[in-house]
Each structure stands twice: as structure tokens, then as C-alpha cells.
Design goal:
Layout: E1 3-7, E2 34-35, H1 38-41, E3 53-57, E4 62-68, E5 76-78, H2 83-94, H3 104-110, E6 114-121, E7 124-128, H4 138-148, H5 155-166, H6 174-181, H7 184-189, H8 195-198, H9 207-215, E8 218-222, H10 229-240, E9 256-260, H11 269-272, E10 274-276, E11 281-283, H12 286-296, E12 302-307, H13 314-317, H14 319-325, E13 348-350, H15 352-358, H16 375-383, H17 393-396, H18 400-403, E14 406-407, E15 412-418, H19 429-434, E16 436-439, H20 460-469, H21 477-483, H22 485-505, H23 515-530, H24 538-554, E17 559-561, H25 562-565, H26 569-575, H27 582-589, H28 607-621, E18 623-625
Parallel strand pairs: 3-7, 8-15, 8-16, 9-12, 12-15
Antiparallel strand pairs: 1-6, 2-5, 3-4, 4-5, 6-7, 10-11, 13-14, 17-18
Helix pairs in contact: 4-5, 9-23, 12-16, 21-22, 21-23, 22-27, 23-24, 27-28
């Protein structure tokens, strides 16, 4: 077994004895341990007694733990450095004051009666005590429902019903189970992986944007003027903005930043700032200040909208950021070889020296003070804030800015809006290769009506669903293979072959793709596997991903006249193909894929349809490209 559950209630339905171990006379009142079920402590799920192991929690805490109690096997687990560590942690999660007894009602009111542990390897585990379950957890939600809502049912009956449900037998309590499935409790707590995107009830489908962001948080929204490119960024910010970041007027969410690109931007100073020799200090710009703000609220997605991004040459003012984004990786947990998959780090954007100078930690002679200011202080000074109570204490007291400098926070999503016309600069393949491009050329004009509700704040429960949407799990293709071992062999075989065939069609042109596109195609396969719908096969998912990657990364690179696309007789004989030009060949390689659409939603173009459009343009104009 790779996952087990530790129940916080005992067989009589009362709070587990170990939770209140410290409540005995003469003990530190927060001391606690977690009692294991016999099937667990008699197994090798946890290391043998006397061996330490690391536990990472869903809210980003890390504990050293080991087996406890006087038996040879160790029937419980504890934090050996101090038993109060786990006791204080559980009280914090349950909302129980320090030193107070954890009661049955405290656990039931929290809404989850068990903690799950997932084994990563022999010395590393993940702990999950969040309030979000998946389909495999329905018996545990049912058990919690009976104990918290139907409190008059005896505990032994609850246990009996739960075991029957685990075996698929609900005949003896069918009416009770039906009541549970229809209850507000069930719909509040049950969240399948695919529900995050599926439950977004809007006339405009956000699925392409969410999938692209979870693949790589740098998007280009291209299209004619007035099609809602910058608006979509605001909509995503409104939907995911928590109450403590909302403005009073309801016009600009605190997790949204609009930066208007100017035609005279020819370096990064207007974006990243610069050191002023006149003022003898670093000039922090709006973009950098917003990144520092995002760093203070890591669970909230922060959206940067670079409006009219190609009014200036992107390669000039955005060059550093293009390079920084390619340094994204999951760092190792300090003191171990274990990778922290909850965090994505990058190279440095603004050097720590400038933050030390700004914080007044360096004097004119370059001497450094010892009492370094924390990140919260620098954030407040940058934004002119006197008090800030919504920043998590542990996050606020970090000193990353003055010791490491500013890196790109992993909750920041950069979206550029672009018009492809004679007034703007064209994108180089370098930029297109590093971004996820989505073409927006407007739908039915009647769809405009009623859209103002998309620019309103949502209730907290809905906000949290949207916040979860944008979290990125993967940076490399290997991480997808590790997360989906059942599909790994097929992914390794099928996905590269798809791109190699596309490269054959593009051979001899500057449009061939390489490892970066393969990596991001594989990541998109992983993203779609995470939200796999019932009945979908791996082939279905790979075809969906290939269709989107063709539209987002490959076709936008392609442009030229008839000479570029026509295939010579010698080429056709040498490569054993019968196509007259490369676009015909690409059309055959593109998946025959029908985009899923909601009722009333505008049609979403597929890669085959786009290639057909490009073929028609080549036929009529002797020149073609992705853009209209």
C-alpha cells in the first residue's frame, strides 16, 4: 500500500487518546501522538521503530517523525524532537487553542475525521488533512457525514455502513445513502480532480486558458482589437481573488496588474527597474513590486497583463524574463535529496544587494547590518503600507529578498495581449517557442450581453476552486512519467513519435520543433491526465494535447510563400510521400479531434481547421501564416 489513513476518532467514536496525551497531570498539555491501526503498524508502510522519516503536509509544513509506544513494532507515530510539535500542529488545523483538549466535536466540526499519509519512498511521506476529497474517498466522506450531520446513529453502525460502502453494497441503507448524495455536505466536500475545470459555469469556456497556464504560466493572447484579450485576464483575477485582496470599488482585483507596453521600450528598465547613479539607489518598477506582493500570498494566483505586448520588440525589453522562465525547477528540500514538488523556483530577477540597500541594511561603505529585515517589511515599504495582517506569519518573516534576491514566484501568471497588424512588431520564433499562444478573434457579438457578471468577486468557496485551478504540478516531462507510471511507457513511445512525424513534414524549413516543445507537450498530457474524464483513453488525451500544442506552439511559427511549402518530386520520392505541399502533410498528421463545447458556446477551432485556413490563404494569396 502507498496510502494509509489515520483516524482521529477511536472505535467508540471519541477523540483518539493519543491526541490528548499531554493532558495528563505533569505533562506539557500540547503533547500528542497519532495511533495507527493494527493493519498499518504491523506493515512496513512506515520505517521500523527507531528510524526517522520526513513528513511534508498539504499546508507546506515539514516534520521529522518516527514510530512510538513501547511495543517492538511501535503502534503510533510522533515528532521525536518534541511531542508537542504534532500536538500544536493538529490544534492549529482544528482551531483548538494551545494547551486545550481536542474533543470529538472539534474533529467533527472540522469536517474530516482522518488524516491520509502517502508514501513517497522509505524515508519521505506526504500528509493530507485538507477538506477536499476525490472519488476514491467517498466512503470516508460518507462516514464523516454520518458522524457530523446524522449524529444519532451509533458509531458501530456507522463503521458497518462504511465498510459495506467500500465493498459497493448500499442496499441495506439505500435511502440514507441517497440522502447523503443529495446533501449540501456531499457537494461541498466532494471534489474530483476534473471537477476544478468542469464546475466553472460560464458562457465562455476557460478550459484552454487553464490547461495552458498549468502547462506553462506564460501566455500570448492574440487577435484583432476589441475581442476581450485583456478582459479575460481580469476575469481570471476576479474569480480567484480572495476577500483580503479585493478593492472596495470592485474594479481592480489585488491579484491583477496591468502593464501598458510602450513603443519606446528597448530594454528591461521599464519592467525590471534599474540602478540610478543620480539617486544612488535601485528604482523598483510596478512589475517588480507586484512580484514581491505575489510572494507574500503564495496560495493566490497573481496575473500580470502585458497589454499590447508587441508594440515594442519583445526580445528587447523581455529578454531577461524569457531566460528566467526557462530556469523553472522544483528545488530540493533543504538537507535532503527529496524534491519539493509543491514549489517551483527560478533564477534571480533582481539581485539581493538592491533589496538590502532598499531596506537600509547596507551603509555607504558597504557594511552589512546583522538584523536583516524580513520580506514582509520590504513588501510593506514598497507599497507604502503601514499594517498588513493577512500575510502568513511564516511567509512574512522570511528573508529571501535580502539573501537570495527576487525570483519569479510560482503563483505568478504572465499573459501578454497582442495585435498582429502593421502597427506592431512580429514575434520571433524564440518568443513563440517559450509561450503558449491562444488566438482570440471574437465570437458571436450577442455573447457580449451578460458578460459583466464575469467581472465580479465570487463567494469564498468558489474563489478557492479557482485558485486551485492554476497550480502547476509539472516542470519536466520526467515528472509526468513519475506521477503517471501506468501510462509512462506509452507516453515515451507515442508522444515523441508524433512530433518526429511533424518534423519530417517540416524538414528543410526553420519551423522544426525540438526538446522544449516535446517537454511541454508531455506536460500538457500530464495536466489532462490529472483531470481525466470518465471513458477517456490515453490516446484521446494525447490527441487533445497534440491539437492544442499545434495551435499554441507549432503553427504560430509557420509562415512563407508557395516555394516554402511546395514539395519537389525528388523530396517526395526520397521521403516516400504523396503530398504536394507541407500543409497537406501536416493536415494528415493533425489529430481528427472534435473540441468539447458547452451548449451555446462558440465553436473552438481545431488544428486541422486552422491548417485548412492556412492552406486556403496560400492558395489565394501565394503566402500564408498562422495570423489572419
Amino acid at each position: 500500500m502507498d496510502t494509509i489513513r489515520v483516524y482521529l476518532l477511536d472505535k467508540d467514536g471519541e477523540s483518539q487518546y493519543g491526541l490528548n496525551w499531554g493532558q495528563r497531570v505533569g505533562r506539557e498539555p500540547n503533547q500528542a501522538y497519532l495511533q495507527l491501526e493494527s493493519a498499518v503498524y504491523n506493515s512496513d508502510f512506515f520505517p521500523v521503530k527507531g528510524t526517522y522519516f520526513l513528513v511534508n503536509t498539504d499546508d507546506k509544513e515539514t516534520f521529522i517523525m518516527n514510530r512510538a509506544q513501547k511495543t517492538d513494532t511501535g503502534t503510533a507515530i510522533q515528532t521525536p524532537e518534541n511531542n508537542s510539535i504534532i500536538g500544536l500542529y493538529l490544534r492549529k488545523r482544528l482551531g483548538v487553542a494551545e494547551g486545550k483538549e481536542i474533543s470529538k466535536d472539534d474533529i467533527l466540526n472540522y469536517g474530516r475525521i482522518e488524516i491520509s499519509f502517502k508514501k513517497i519512498d522509505e524515508r519521505h511521506y506526504n500528509l493530507d488533512y485538507s477538506k477536499k476529497w476525490k472519488s476514491c474517498d467517498i466512503p470516508h466522506i460518507f462516514k464523516t457525514y454520518l458522524l457530523t450531520v446524522k449524529r444519532d446513529i451509533p458509531y458501530n453502525v456507522v463503521e458497518n455502513y462504511t465498510k459495506k460502502l467500500e465493498n459497493g453494497n448500499v442496499i441495506s441503507f439505500q435511502s440514507l445513502y441517497s440522502e447523503f448524495m443529495d446533501s449540501e455536505f456531499f457537494h461541498k466536500h466532494y471534489t474530483k480532480k476534473s471537477d476544478t475545470m468542469k464546475n466553472m459555469d460560464n458562457t465562455l469556456s476557460y478550459s484552454p486558458f487553464i490547461t495552458a497556464i498549468r502547462t506553462k504560466p506564460f501566455l500570448l493572447l492574440a487577435g484583432i482589437s476589441g475581442t476581450g484579450k485583456s478582459r479575460i485576464v481580469r476575469e481570471l483575477a476576479f474569480k480567484s481573488c480572495p476577500k483580503y485582496l479585493q478593492d472596495k470599488d470592485g474594479t481592480t482585483p489585488g491579484n491583477y496588474c496591468m502593464i501598458e507596453v510602450k513603443p519606446n521600450w528597448h530594454d528591461s528598465t521599464e519592467l525590471l527597474g534599474y540602478y540610478s547613479n543620480m539617486n544612488k539607489s535601485y528604482q523598483f518598477k510596478k512589475f517588480v513590486k507586484f512580484l514581491v506582493k505575489a510572494k507574500m500570498f503564495p496560495k493566490v494566483p497573481f496575473f500580470v497583463c502585458l497589454d499590447e505586448m508587441n508594440l515594442a520588440p519583445v526580445e528587447h525589453y523581455f529578454a531577461e524574463m524569457l531566460s528566467i522562465m526557462e530556469t523553472r525547477k522544483h528545488p530540493k528540500i533543504e538537507g535532503t535529496d527529496e524534491v519539493d514538488k509543491e514549489v517551483i523556483k527560478t533564477g534571480t530577477i533582481v539581485d539581493a544587494l538592491h533589496f538590502r540597500e532598499y531596506a537600509g541594511l547596507i551603509d555607504k561603505n558597504g557594511n552589512t547590518y546583522n538584523n536583516l529585515r524580513n520580506d514582509r517589511d520590504i513588501y510593506m515599504k514598497l507599497h507604502g503600507i503601514d499594517t498588513e495582517s493577512d500575510i502568513d506569519e511564516e511567509i512574512g518573516k522570511r528573508t529571501d529578498l535580502t539573501t537570495e534576491g527576487l525570483t519569479l514566484p510560482d503563483n505568478v501568471i504572465i499573459i501578454g495581449t497582442v495585435n498582429m497588424d502593421d502597427t506592431t512588431h512580429q514575434f520571433s520564433r524564440k518568443v513563440i517557442d517559450r509561450a503558449m499562444t491562444i488566438e482570440m478573434n471574437g465570437g458571436r457579438l450577442s455573447d457580449m450581453f451578460g458578460g459583466s457578471k464575469d467581472l465580479e468577486y465570487l463567494p469564498q468557496e468558489e474563489q478557492e476552486k479557482w485558485q486551485d485551478c492554476f497550480r502547476q504540478r509539472y516542470v519536466t516531462a520526467d515528472e509526468v512519467l513519475e506521477e503517471h507510471p501506468e501510462a509512462a511507457d506509452d507516453i515515451v513511445k507515442i508522444v515523441p513519435e508524433k512530433l518526429e512525424n511533424i518534423n519530417k513534414a517540416l524538414k528543410g524549413t526553420p519551423f522544426e520543433v525540438s526538446y522544449r516543445v516535446l517537454n511541454e507537450l508531455t506536460i500538457m498530457v500530464g495536466v489532462l491526465l490529472d483531470s481525466k474524464k470518465e471513458g477517456e483513453t490515453l490516446d484521446d488525451i494525447i490527441n487533445q494535447a497534440l491539437d492544442r500544442i499545434l495551435l499554441m506552439k507549432i503553427l504560430p511559427r509557420i509562415e512563407g510563400d508557395s516555394d516554402m511549402f511546395n514539395l519537389s518530386r525528388d523530396f517526395k520520392q526520397e521521403n516516400h510521400v504523396e503530398y504536394n505541399n507541407r500543409l497537406e502533410w501536416l493536415m494528415e498528421l493533425a489529430p481528427e479531434f472534435v473540441a468539447e463545447e458547452q451548449e451555446g458556446e462558440e465553436h473552438r477551432q481545431t488544428a486541422r481547421e486552422k491548417i485548412k485556413e492556412m492552406k486556403e490563404r496560400l492558395k489565394n494569396q501565394e503566402f500564408t501564416r498562422f495570423w489572419p
